[in-house]
Amino acid sequence: MGELVFLCLKVFVCRIIDVSFSTFRTVSIVKGKTMLSACIGLIETLIWFLIVREALLFEAAGYEKILIAIAYSTGFATGTYIGGTISKKFIKGMVQVQIVTSTKDDALIEEIRDAGYAITIIDIAASKFGPEKYMILSEISSTDLKDFKALTQKLDPKAFIMVNETKYVFNGFFKTAEK
Known about the structure:
With 179 residues, the chain is α+β, with helices and mostly antiparallel strands. It is built from five helices and four strands. It folds into two domains: 2-90; 94-166, Alpha-Beta Plaits (2-Layer Sandwich). The N and C termini lie far apart (54 Å).
């Protein structure tokens, strides 16, 4: 029984490690970091192969196989969560923020610019659906998103905000990170 518990624990921990690597590798590929992704893939596959081999070679009864499968799947789920968290922390990028204001307010534009963000403004004409508005476009670092969103919501709580990840950005002005 002790051998089974140890194997389940080892399978669980190894799945957390290898799936965390897998999640991080996938995000790295999307961000164009192919060499890093290849190195991570080597480690990830080696861990997976070794632990699966050990689990499959373990002679187990029916209920013991279920316990191993549960350790395997919970390790996978936990690894996915941890890998996603690690990816957000270490793989930074650019995001495009589109804001549709609730009204046409030049003070809002001034405050966003005064905060150091580069923005492009598009006038939206009044219609039977609402008054004149602005559409504000900005390309910012993903690390600035929380502050940018808070500033926007403070200035216009009813603003409609859309955020998209950006793969490449060329030229333009970007707020410098304050250390």
